[in-house]
Amino acid sequence: MASSDHIPFEICGYRILPISLPPLPSYQVSTTHYLYLRPHEPKLPTQTAARSLFLVNVPIDSTEIHIKSLLSIQLGLPQGRIEEVEFAGCKRKLEREEDAATKPSKGRKGNKRKRGPEAGDIEELEGTALPAIWDRELRKDGLTAVVVFVDRPSMNAAYKAVRRIQKAGEAPIWGEGLQGKIPALGSTRYLNHHRLQYPDKDLLLQSVNKYMSEFAAREAAQARLQARQRQIPDEEGFVTVTKGGRNGPVRQDVAQEVALKQKEKQRGLEDFYRFQHREKKKAKAAELMRKFEDDKEKVKRMKEKRGTFKVGSYVHLILLKSWLILVA
Description:
Layout: E1 2-3, E2 10-11, E3 14-21, E4 31-39, E5 52-58, H1 64-70, E6 82-87, H2 93-102, E7 143-149, H3 152-168, E8 170-171, H4 187-196, H5 201-231, H6 252-266, H7 274-306, H8 312-327
Antiparallel strand pairs: 1-8, 2-3, 3-4, 4-5, 5-7, 6-7
Helix pairs in contact: 7-8
């Protein structure tokens, strides 16, 4: 441990943990870096938020091993109490697993056809990346990270240990005891980078073959899906148009059956709105008046033809029937 100048214990809800950065071969001066911690409180609660710490201003050479060592051994706590460390910009492993477990099945939700990955496009294939050309990743200045502990008591113990370090006026040495466990920086890093830019031929061929095999399998699955879509009509009786030719026509009786079901669903919705009901009554009244006038004209022609035709009860019956219908 190296001594540190007096600093405030807390600022804006963050506890301040001073870290002593050791001297480098190119710069033989030790300096102090300040790490800010608080319990993780995301806007959207997660299953692990209650047992996580949120870190701000992590050093640029931070690795998961650095953070685990700092918040366990160097704070006087036992190892193995940290489940994972995820830096900003990297989706957490637990969240990826939860997304995969809760991802809903894709189906037709409307008439609008979607483009892109949801339409069956072949996406970036996991586990088929080319060999890495850097042996260690560097962070951006002022980056944040989330440290997930195995349980809430372990998180509280680490959070309290930070206050104990503050009161003692000490600063843990960054990377103490990790020599040989992580790739070195400086010129060694760039020598390794130059070597990794030219991977072994067998390793490169294995990576390419794995990618092409996965790509061919995805492409075949996509072709089978499109073939099924060309054969099955949707709920409205239409067939999805996909790239490529049809393997065979859709059965006409199937399409007619689907169209009939859709027509049955829409039955009874003609008078759903009030104005539709009014228009229907007006049309019915106009039709009755037209028939009434036709009947009168027919009686008139019959009178002219026979001369002394007595309408009698027949005309009165027609007039009475028409009037009753209009009143109803």
